[in-house]
Write a structure and sequence with these properties.
heterodimer, A: 1125 residues, mainly beta, 5-stranded antiparallel beta sheet, 5-stranded mixed beta sheet, 88 strands, 2% helix, B: 326 residues, alpha/beta, 9 strands, globular, binds S-adenosylmethionine
């Protein structure tokens, strides 16, 4: 190939960019969003739905968009056409767009104009654009032909952190400049003399004690707002800023953010601010906070826009998410807390408990045994009954269902349970169940067919009552169906119950934190030896002594399956069955996804609610399929959405220890609680979900540290994926069979995300996030990739096992199953199951206790992972793969993954490197007539790479690993087969590829920007008949070795040998560079500037011959490139 | 996580406290000197972006040899006084500050100009890289006024997308430009130091404070952006082999046999910008949003919005979100 061809091929082109949203602007009913150098245009309909109309690509080259300015139309007609100035960094471009009738077309774009300095603000002045530049100067620019008309500096030359231009003509142009010294400088560029001598500031305003990041001027009211590093927003009365010498008065100093404030925007009636704390606050002009929008994740909100007519605020975050919020001033209509004025001379006694039957009926009992009903339609209290047997102790629970099934139940301290039909309380039925106190009551409803009431009595006995109604509706029947027995514990009662569809089992939670499974109809378990065993009082030592006699009396059925203490000592608070899973919540601040397989309960995933919500009280499934979490955060009751990370409702109820009830129907959500001797009711019309908050889902809120492609799912034509991103560019036939790459990413935000990247649409869908890590995730490894059903009975889709590891020396193992699902936007369903976890500090604590070691946890981080598998083509052989971890404490550790990842066990370690180990990588070596060999390479901050032979590590009697000094401690890995000093400092990327000659190419990239490539030969010593027993150690040697010292200008964090002739590298200098291999030194072919800063990891894979290769770059964002082979 | 956790994760942070340095950065300058003998023969030095002052501490000890040298330290932030160091509080990119610094060297130029300047990073990478480059260029502009021919200039540099443009700019003024990374600077950090030796401005160059030095742009040379001809200066790792590894987590009992004792920070920050906000937060006095307050049910039904009394002073709540170091 000639030199020129070489220079062009292969050429990487950007397919997809996920970056912080740094520019947002509403134009009519359209939303402009900047993402990297691209402009995204969305249509907003009145419901607040957002539909992407078009991506206008690459407006700013390698700059990122920071803002848009739409040229004002004198005729006010922006509905069919608009001229938009797009700026960011030092770049400016003008683009003309026609967008009538929802069809969007780019009519014209100017050149990309490079300024000499950073652009802080831009403003249209009669067809030209004024720009406020980085060192406090203003230029007037003709954006059509690209020439500078004016260039006026300020006498006070300094760097700015923000600027705001005001006025519509050059003559009246005013700049408010935010200097790094925290001052605001107001000056008038047009007062410059013809020679453009610097202009002196007209006014200096100080007040903030940190730099000013954003400003907004409201001409109609003469107000200026500023947002600062000092975490405050200031409101200034400035009058008409275009008039020199005016008075500036600070009329508001608003502290509400708990971190730096990035953005501020003045509206006619509100002030909007947003910042690093991910909160968007709505203030009155007087400085009161009216609303707070929380939901973005990570490092903050970077852009805000407002649609004043629709009263929407739109925010864009570092998480690349875009959200829409409703401006309603002081709270949502139809939402509020009211006291139901129970106290009255006609209603004696004090309130003891409250419950809700649907969202319209409140029930309450008093300490004189009175049961009262409050109907919100009638708006008055009515006594249903009075029974003095319930005066000293009384439990009250209404039946579930939208109208509470019209039933409630009472229970007292003497084992009495009363079931009351609310409409005909006289038909109430009493049941004397126990000799002692009823500890708890709960209901379980199956469709509208089966209703059970469970009551816990002394000794862990749970009576299960079957409730049915007469066809007339006038009478009810209560029949005891059976009794269950809970596992022994101090506080031995159940707390919640639910039917497991189809209805053969009941799932219960107990006060001890266990989740239990009981047969719903034990009569069906007649056959001996099948199903649960009846436990007798004699067998259950702590069972109630109620029956008095010592003979074997059957007290109840034990659980068929249980997860002991799943939620810890504080207890389980709810169980819910939905979509094939069981969800349990607890006062440990977590909720679990469980499932029942073969009559056994199995945990799938543990999830945490928002910070501070340590008491989760329950879950609700919203009609749109999303879930909300109910719980208590200090004194507040909170409804929280895991999907939008938003606190949907906050009620200051005083905490969860008092009696409370929650109900959610389509019409309204209600929360009732007792406070100051009265019943309080919070109600929100329209249910607990707020519509259309998320315009676009965010990805990770913080830096992405690792990316790994898992595999590809092929969808048949029946799953045709609509191309939203490029509706125009779609050529007929290009829909094809949908190929979707599945990629996982790990982030400093402590989550692992599963992404679907279709090859046809250039979109990314976040399928699921795994939130088990307590610290940042830094490394991922995948093994056992297959299809659902396995090789024998293969179904479309993808299965794999994943290990993730990171800060606090924590490692998790989970399995992934992705199947086609036409009902989701991504056309995929993703199921995750958590398999196991490991924490080094816990392990050390155990060993310290056992061996009196004095090893103190040095807060180790895992930096990199590699699956080491000898026979990946023959899974199931041997004890399971190993996973090697590079550790910051200087160790390389080997873990054994047994039982498909259900057991994670620390096997061996070595402190050979004595430095922070940055990378591990493994490969196998094959040679004719020889056993396949498994080689691990590890590389550290001193630039050395060590090679280890792990072939026989798992063999019985192998000497690869030296036994530990104490049993239970890890084995020692001995000395490496070879070490190579590849670099003078840290190795940030490492890859190998077998060569046709039977050797291996090893490539590494370093912190100093250098590349190192060498050929490694693996030789086995001749087998000597005499000592066939002794282990053979391969001899590794370096054949030819090359260094490229200044390959990149920063850390080389990604390297991949694509073929023995071609290599690609990626660096923090934002270059993706191709290198030709094979004739001596690697030679530069070409490089592409990409947009993601701080790239920490790269993965490349071939898709298919037509599509070529794909490459994912992960850093402060994610970008996907592709190139043809 | 306890207070020792940062000591475990960052050995240089811990050593700095134990050795009385105001910041761990002191080791960076010491390791740079180990490699380049920066302080040899230096009598007058400028420390730009000096707060909290660990580089000034190092300079005041090492500069001047027997006779006392002169160190001028400049920072935006207030800095606790140091014996023998002249302090200027101001923005080094501001004309007036630059003039004030230059005054001190009229007639007697400096031998060494160092700048460890870093903006308070915003997390938007392009902004941060730009702001950092402006500090370097402002420092370079000051250096062109105060540095004697053959003098040395050391400045922090972020190795991002456009770093090669800065290298080519520095090469105009110095006979040797290297990129150095002390071992005490982490692998995971994009910071490095441009070590520029042999100040030798182009013939006919007239320093001009009033016009800021602008970074070059790629416009003139496509090869600088995509091609192989970028100016990537040689890279040097500094610090001897036995130096601690700043990326490694060490257990509290280091191998040198010394027993660990917790040391509080040498010099806490003086009046950081977030001080007032933290104080308010601590006292639960940050403004809180409107929460539906109590009112009777009839009012709820009659009014489209419930009435509320807004409280500006919220009750004390647990503070677990932001770590106020004040
Ligand atoms: C990394 S610290 C320097 C630490 C210092 N070398 C030491 O050893 O203690 C960076 C300093 O740059 C300062 N800085 C940032 N922008 C500045 C500016 N425009 N003018 C002056 N100082 C600035 C900050 O206030 C901060 O103190």
């Amino acid at each position: 190939m000639d030199a020129f061809g070489d220079y062009v091929w292969p050429r990487a082109t950007s397919e997809l960019i996920l970056l912080p949203v740094t520019g947002l602007e509403c134009v009519g009913d359209r939303l402009l969003a900047g993402e990297g150098p691209d402009l995204l245009v969305y249509n907003l309909d009145f419901g607040g739905h957002l539909r992407m109309v078009k991506r206008v690509q690459n407006l700013l080259g390698h700059y990122l968009i920071h803002g848009f300015r739409v040229q004002p139309e004198p005729k006010g007609d922006l509905d069919s056409e608009a001229m938009i100035a797009v700026f960011g960094s030092k770049g400016l471009r003008v683009v003309k767009i026609s967008w009538g009738q929802s069809h969007l077309r780019e009519l014209w774009r100017s050149g990309l104009w490079n300024m000499s300095d950073w652009i802080w603000d831009a403003r249209w002045l009669e067809g030209n654009v004024a720009l406020a530049l980085g060192h406090n100067s203003v230029v007037l620019y003709d954006p059509v032909i690209g020439c500078m008309l004016q260039d006026v500096p300020c006498t006070d030359r300094c760097t700015l952190s923000s600027a705001c231009l005001i006025g519509d003509t050059w003559k009246e142009l005013t700049i408010v400049a935010g200097a790094v010294s925290n001052e605001l400088l107001v000056w008038y560029p047009a007062t410059a003399l013809p020679d453009n001598k610097p202009v002196a500031p007209d006014r200096r305003v100080s007040g903030h004690v940190g730099v000013i990041f954003s400003m907004s001027y409201l001409e109609s009211k003469g107000l200026l707002a500023t947002a600062s590093e000092d975490r405050s927003v200031r409101i200034w009365k400035v009058g008409d800023l275009r008039v020199p010498g005016g008075r500036v008065q600070n009329i508001g100093h608003c502290f509400g953010h708990s971190a730096r404030v990035w953005q501020v925007k003045l509206l006619e009636n509100y002030l909007i601010s947003a910042g690093e704390d991910c909160v968007c606050l709505v203030w009155s002009h007087e400085g009161e906070i009216l609303q707070a929008f929380r939901g973005h994740q990570g490092r903050g909100i970077r852009a805000i826009a407002a649609h004043e007519r629709q009263t929407w605020v739109i925010t864009g975050g570092d998480d690349s998410g875009i959200r829409l919020w409703h401006l309603v001033g002081r709270g949502y209509p139809g939402l509020g807390v009211s006291s139901l004025s129970f106290k009255s001379p006609s209603r004696p006694g004090a309130l003891k408990a409250v419950t809700l039957a649907g969202s319209w009926r409140v029930l309450a009992v008093t300490d004189v045994g009175g049961l009262y009903l409050y109907d919100l339609e009638v708006k008055c209290w009515e006594q249903l009954l009075e029974d003095n047997r319930f005066q000293s102790y009384c439990l009250l629970e209404a039946a579930p269902g939208p109208e509470g099934f019209g039933l409630c139940a009472l229970a007292n301290g003497e084992g009495l349970v009363k079931v009351v039909p609310i409409n005909t309380p006289t038909a109430a039925v009493d049941q004397n169940l126990f000799q002692g106190k009823v500890h708890s009551l709960s209901w379980a409803l199956r469709g509208y067919e089966e209703l059970l009431l469970l009551a816990s009595g002394p000794g862990g006995v749970v009576a299960c009552l079957e409730i049915s109604a007469a066809p007339t509706g006038k009478a009810i029947f209560v029949k005891e169906r059976c009794r269950y027995l809970l596992p022994p514990s101090k506080q031995r009662w159940h707390t919640c119950s639910a039917f497991l569809p189809p209805g053969d089992f009941l799932v219960c939670g107990d006060r001890r934190g266990s989740v239990l499974l009981f047969p719903a109809r034990p009569c069906l378990f007649k056959k001996p030896g099948v199903g649960p065993k009846a436990i007798t009082a004699a067998e259950a030592p702590q069972a109630g002594s109620s029956s008095g006699g010592s003979e074997s009396v059957v007290t109840g059925l034990g659980p068929v399956s249980s997860l002991h203490s799943l939620h810890g000592k504080q207890g389980v608070t709810s169980v819910t069955c939905h979509g094939g899973y069981v969800y349990s919540t607890g006062r440990d601040g977590s909720y679990y996804q469980l499932f029942v397989h073969g009559g056994r309960l199995q945990p799938v995933l543990r999830q945490k609610a928002c910070r501070g919500m340590n008491w989760i009280a329950g879950l609700r499934m919203a009609p749109d399929g999303s879930m909300v979490v109910l719980g208590f955060h200090a004194n507040e009751f909170v409804v929280w959405s895991p999907r939008s990370h938003e606190k949907l409702h906050i009620v200051n109820c005083g905490g969860g220890h008092r009696s409370w009830a929650f109900s959610d129907t389509e019409a309204a959500m209600a929360f009732a609680y007792l406070k100051d001797g009265d019943v309080m009711l919070y109600r929100a019309l329209g249910g607990c979900i707020r519509p259309n908050v998320i315009l676009r889902e965010g990805l990770h809120g913080r830096e992405i540290t690792c990316v790994k492609r898992v595999g590809t799912v092929t969808l048949g034509p029946e799953f045709e994926v609509p191309n939203l991103e490029h509706p125009d560019s779609l050529e007929p036939g290009s829909e094809g069979p949908g190929l979707i790459d599945i990629v996982i990413t790990g982030s400093e935000d402590t989550t692992v995300c599963v992404l679907a990247l279709p090859t046809t649409t250039g979109a990314a869908h976040a399928l699921t996030a795994v939130c088990n890590h307590i610290s940042s995730v830094r490394a991922l490894a995948v093994w056992g990739v297959g299809t659902p059903g396995g090789p024998q009975d293969s179904h479309p889709g993808l299965t794999a096992q994943v290990v993730s590891a990171g800060g606090r020396a924590e490692m998790h193992c989970f399995s992934l199953m992705i199947t086609p699902d036409a009902s989701t936007p991504s056309r995929l369903a993703c199921h995750i199951m958590h398999l196991s976890s490991h924490r080094l500090d816990e392990y050390w604590d155990r060993q310290r206790n056992r061996h009196r070691m004095i090893k103190v946890d040095p807060e180790t981080r895992y930096m990199s992972l590699a699956i080491c598998e000898l026979d990946s083509d023959r899974p199931g052989l041997g004890p399971g793969p190993l996973v090697a971890a590079a550790c910051s404490d200087g160790a390389v550790r080997l873990f054994l993954l047994q039982d498909s990842g259900r057991i994670l066990h620390l096997l061996a370690e070595t402190f050979h490197h004595k430095r922070c180990v940055l990378k591990v990588h493994s490969f196998t070596h094959e040679a004719p007539n020889q056993r396949r060999r498994l080689i691990l390479c590890s590389a550290a901050t001193d630039g050395s790479i060590a090679f280890w032979d792990l072939t026989t590590a798992m063999d019985r009697g192998s000497t690869t690993l030296e036994p530990p000094a104490h049993p239970g401690l890890p084995y020692q890995m001995g000395t490496p087969c070879l070490t190579v000093q590849a670099h003078s400092c840290g190795v940030n990327s490492l890859h190998t590829l077998p060569t046709p000659e039977g050797h291996h190419l090893v490539a590494s990239g370093s912190e100093d920007g250098s590349l190192h490539v060498f050929t490694l030969a693996v030789k086995m010593p001749e087998l000597e008949e005499a000592d066939g027993e002794a282990e053979l150690v391969p001899q590794l040697c370096v054949l030819d070795e090359y260094s490229v010292p200044c390959a990149h200008a920063a850390h080389v964090t990604g390297i991949k040998i694509l073929s023995p002739k071609l290599m690609v590298s990626a660096s923090i200098d934002q270059r993706l560079t191709f290198w030709r291999l094979g004739n001596g030194e690697p030679t530069f072919m070409n490089s592409t500037v990409y947009h993601v800063p701080d790239v920490a990891d790269m993965d490349c894979w071939p898709v298919n011959p037509e599509f070529g290769h794909r490459c994912a770059l992960a850093g402060q964002g994610l970008e996907v490139y592709n190139w043809y082979d | 996580m306890g207070r020792t956790s940062k000591d475990k994760r960052d050995v240089y942070y811990r050593l700095a406290k134990e050795k009385g340095w105001r910041a761990r950065s002191a080791f960076k300058l010491l390791q740079l000197d180990e490699e380049f003998q920066l302080f040899k023969g230096v009598k007058r030095a400028v420390d730009l972006c000096a707060a909290p002052g660990s580089w000034s501490q190092v300079l005041s000890q090492k500069v001047g040899g027997q006779s006392s040298g002169q160190v001028v330290a400049v920072d935006l932030q207030a800095m606790a006084p140091l014996p023998g160091v002249i302090q200027i509080q101001g923005d080094i990119t501001q004309l007036s500050t630059a003039k004030e610094i230059i005054q001190h060297f009229e007639g007697c130029p400096a031998d060494l100009v160092v700048c460890d300047g870093a903006p308070d990073v915003t997390g938007l990478h392009d902004v941060d890289e730009y702001m950092q480059a402006q500090l370097l260029l402002a420092a370079l502009n000051i250096a062109t006024h105060v540095l004697k021919p053959g003098g040395c200039f050391v400045a922090k540099i972020f190795r991002g997308r456009d770093v090669t443009l800065l290298y080519s700019q520095l090469r105009i003024f110095f006979s040797s430009v290297l990129c150095a990374k002390p071992k005490s600077s982490r692998n995971s950090s994009i910071e490095a130091f441009a070590v520029c030796q042999g100040y030798d401005p182009p013939e006919g160059f007239i320093p001009d404070l009033t016009r800021p030095l602008m970074n070059h742009s790629y416009e003139t040379d496509f090869n600088q952006l995509h091609g192989p001809a970028r100016v990537i200066v040689p890279f040097v790792t500094c610090g001897d082999l036995s130096a601690y590894d700043s990326d490694r987590t060490y257990s509290l009992d280091l191998d040198n046999g010394s027993e660990y004792k917790y040391t509080p920070p040498t010099q806490p920050p003086i009046a950081p910008p977030y001080q007032e906000a933290c104080r308010l937060k601590k006292n639960g006095q940050l403004a809180k949003e409107f929460l539906p307050q109590e009112c009777s049910i009839d009012r709820v039904d009659k009014l489209s919005q419930p009435l509320a009394i807004h409280t500006l002073l919220a009750p004390k709540v647990e503070d677990n979100e932001i770590n106020c170091s004040s």
